[in-house]
UniProtKB/TrEMBL annotation:
PANTHER family with a match to the protein in the record: SERINE/THREONINE PROTEIN PHOSPHATASE 2A PP2A REGULATORY SUBUNIT B, SERINE_THREONINE PROTEIN PHOSPHATASE 2A REGULATORY SUBUNIT
Pfam families, sorted: B56
InterPro entries to which the protein is assigned, alphabetical: ARM-like (IPR011989), ARM-type_fold (IPR016024), PP2A_B56 (IPR002554)
Record protein name field: Serine/threonine protein phosphatase 2A regulatory subunit
Residue ranges crossing the lipid bilayer per the database entry: none
Organism taxonomic ancestry: Eukaryota, Viridiplantae, Streptophyta, Embryophyta, Tracheophyta
Length: 469
């Protein structure tokens, strides 16, 4: 028995679907209009509301090199104007952007940003002249467009939900973004630093990946190429990251200090980023003063032998470390640090010698030295007396006199005893020199006698050989 149309057992869903299907068929047969669907309705709404934005995004996908003479300057200006319109829209979004807008927008940003960078033009010259780095920086001709593109990317990161962006700003996007730190344009690196830093703190699920990627860049720079323009900017990001570490530090973070930050001291271009590097290292020591010994030994390991500019920077960093080291470690590190400072104050480079002498104005350094006076004083007194006798610079000698006064006031009796021991060592060294000279004189005299002894025999053999001929 069939189900009646008006029966309560009839399916309302089947009925409505069937009627709708019939109505659609009738509509298609009569006037040719499209069948209604929620997807097409949503797409029409997006096109009506965001049509202009989509048009602007599409136009901005065109890339200009600014080096090709065939490129039209007017078209470049039009694109820059449209980029500003897009930036204005991103600064004041009426509501969260739909995915249909985010996808082409991120694609446009990728097309503009991720490009092959020109080969480095500065090479090692910047490493020798860090204060004149801007003179050797290469400015990107496409910066009028890139600047606005970076601003748009920053607005996207700040305004949109990271969970929504996760499908578009993925690991590959971050790796490509990190590679742009090799740009020689300082303006671009500054913008990159801001954007990458914001992504790190908003996209918490990417933090470990981003830290590992930056570590890979550092290790490649240290042990392979020693050519990278953005080490300083990456270290500035790490300054903020280290500041957020909780105490006690995780083993991963300590390994980063020992395997990455300390070896960064040995690179030839260290002067360019030393300020940021020293700040990172000091933050570690401030958080865990027990790490001071590890850091000091690491810095002494990479102490420069011939580069006076680097040596001055190392002395600066060593003095800052002394102020943050755990006082319980003074006795373990005092002799190591004071020995290195004494070597530096005997340097023939006046800048190195003066910087080493100024360390004695630091109260914490004097306190550390006084904790191991018996072991430290012989080394320091020898360095001071050597400067007063032999150094060529009058200013160094004057500063050495001041340091001598400070040291004598700490323990006059110990200073006099060290002077006597120094004089005794010099006497013994003089005796060794005299003995060495006497030995050489005896050898020379014996050699001369042997020459005279063998000379007649040689003459006789010569005559015998002539007779045989």
């Amino acid at each position: 028995m069939g189900v009646l149309r008006n029966s309560p057992n009839a399916s309302p869903i089947k009925k409505s679907t069937t009627l709708q299907h019939l109505f659609d068929l009738e509509a298609n047969n009569s006037d040719g209009t499209m069948i209604y669907s929620p997807e097409s309705s949503k797409q029409s709404i997006i096109e009506s509301e965001y049509g202009e934005i989509l048009s602007i995004v599409s136009h901005c996908c065109s890339i200009f090199t600014f080096t090709d003479p065939l490129e039209s300057p007017s078209e470049q200006d039009v694109k820059r104007l449209k980029l500003f319109q897009l930036l204005s829209f991103m600064k004041k979004p009426k509501r969260p952007l739909p995915e249909e807008i985010i996808r082409p927008l991120v694609s446009m940003l990728s097309a503009n940003l991720f490009r092959p960078l020109p080969p480095s033009a500065k090479r090692i010259v910047v490493c020798e002249l860090p204060e004149d780095e801007d003179l050797f920086s290469t400015l990107s001709p496409a910066w009028p467009h890139l600047q606005v593109v970076y601003e748009i990317l920053l607005r996207i990161v700040l305004n949109l939900d990271p969970k929504v962006l996760r499908g578009y700003v993925d690991e590959r996007f971050l790796v490509n973004l990190l590679s742009l730190f090799q740009s020689e344009d300082r303006r671009e690196r500054d913008m990159l630093k801001n954007v990458y830093h914001r992504i790190y703190f908003k996209f918490t699920f990417y933090r470990e990946i981003m830290r590992k990627s930056m570590n890979d860049v550092f290790l490649h720079y240290i042990f392979d190429s020693e050519m990278h323009s953005g080490i300083g900017e990456l270290l500035e990001i790490w300054v903020s990251i280290i500041n957020g570490f909780t105490v006690p530090l995780r083993e991963e973070h300590k390994l980063f200090l020992m395997r990455v930050l300390i070896p960064l001291h040995k690179a030839r271009g260290m002067q360019v980023y030393h300020r940021q590097l020293a700040y990172c290292v000091n933050q570690f020591v401030q958080k865990e003063p027990m790490l001071g010994g590890t850091v000091v030994r690491g810095i002494l390991k990479y102490w420069p032998a011939t580069n006076c500019q680097k040596e001055v920077l190392f002395i600066d960093e060593l003095e800052e470390l002394v102020e943050n080291i755990d006082p319980d470690h003074y006795r373990k590190l005092a002799l190591l640090i004071c020995t290195q400072i004494s070597r530096c104050l005997n340097s023939l480079n006046s800048q190195v010698a003066e910087r080493a002498l100024y360390v004695w104005n630091n109260e914490q350094f004097v306190k550390m030295a006084s904790s191991m006076m018996e072991e430290v004083f012989p080394v320091v007194v020898e360095g001071v007396e050597k400067n007063l006798k032999w150094h060529w610079s009058k200013s160094v000698k004057q500063l050495t006199e001041n340091v001598k006064t400070v040291i004598e006031e700490m323990d006059p009796d110990l200073y006099d005893r060290c002077l006597k021991e120094l004089a005794h060592r010099e006497y013994l060294a003089g005796q060794e020199d005299i003995k060495r000279k006497e030995n050489w004189e005896r050898l020379e005299l014996a050699a001369a006698n042997n020459h005279q002894f063998f000379q007649p025999q040689n003459v006789y053999m010569h005559h015998v050989s002539e007779r045989r001929i």
